[in-house]
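re: that complex we talked abt at group meeting.

here r the seqs, copy pasted straight from the sheet so there may be weird spacing, ignore it
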Amino acid sequence: TVGCVAVDNQGNLATATSTGGLVNKMVGRIGDTPIIGAGTYANSLCAVSATGRGESIMRATVARDVAALMEYKGFSLEEAAAYVVGECAPKGTAGLVAVSAKGEVTMQFNTTGMFRACATEDGYSEIAIW
Amino acid sequence: MGWAIALHGGAGDIPLNLPPERREPREAALRHCLDIGVRELENHPHFNAGKGSVLTSDGTVEMEACIMDGRTKKCGAVSGLTTVVNAISLARLVMEKTLHIYLAFDGAEAFAREQGVETTDKSHFVTSENIERLKQAKEANRVQVCISHNHVIKDNHKRTDLACYIFGKLCINSKIDYTQPIPKEPTKETTVADGDSQIG
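got the structure back, here u go
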C-alpha cells in the first residue's frame, strides 16, 4: 500500500491511498484502502492514510478514529494517532501517516517498520523505514 | 500554519537486515516521491500499488485506491482495477465527476475508459518479485498443522497418533503403530517464508 497526506498553508487537507491489496487474496477481496474511515479519511482537522493488514484496519476504523479523537476528545494529532495505532489496532497490523490543519505531521506504526517520508514548509524532512 | 506532506510505502514486518540493494531503491523512491506525491508511488515497482501490486490467488492484479478532501469531505474510491495505470487518478475522477463515492470492478474499468485515463495491459503490473511472493504464500498455506501435536505436518513426517488420523490432519505417508507410544517430540518452531507482505 502507498499513501500520501498533505495540507496547504490555508489549512486545506487531503489524503490519498492506493494498493494492490493482500498477497494471495481471494479474487474480489476488498481491503481497507478504499473504505472511507478505515484506510483513508480526511476532514477539517486532519488527513489520514493507513497501511497494514486491511481486515484489522477496517475493524478498528483507524483513519476515522484519529479524526474522531481530535474532534470529540480534543486530542492533538500526535496523541490521537498514537492512541489509535497503540491501543485500537492489534500489534503488528497497522501504520499511518497524518497531517493536521495546523501543519503538524505524525507517522505512527505498530509493525516492525513502515516505509515513510515527510517534509514541512519550515525545511524539516525525514525518510525512514524502522 | 504551513504546508506539510507525509507519505508511506507500506507498513509490515520489514526485516531489520533488509539488504542495501532492496532498501536503497525504496529510500530513493520515497525521496523522489516526496517531491511529487502519491501517484508517483504507484509507478514504482518496489511498492505494493500500481506496478508492483501483489497478486491474487489466481495470479491476477486487482488494484484499489481512495482519495478524500478534508475541507469539503468529498471523496472517491475504486476497487477491482486491472488495467488502470494510476488507480488514484481514477478515484479522483469518481470524486470530481460523479455523484457517487465508490466504483468497483467492471463498472470502474468502464468508467476509466469513458474518462480516457491511461490504461495498459494487465501484465504491466505484474513483477517477478510478486510472482515469487505468491508462490511462497501458497506454499505457506499448503503447510498443514497437526492439531494433535501442534506441529507442522510435512510429507515425510514419520509418526503420528490416532487423533491425527481421525481428524484427517495426518501426514500422508505415516504408518500408525498402535502398539508404540508416541515419543514426546519437541515441537520445532518452523518459520515458513509465507510471502505475505512483510515489507508492507
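couple things i noticed - The first strand of chain A starts at residue 2 and ends at 7. Chain A has a mean pLDDT of 96.
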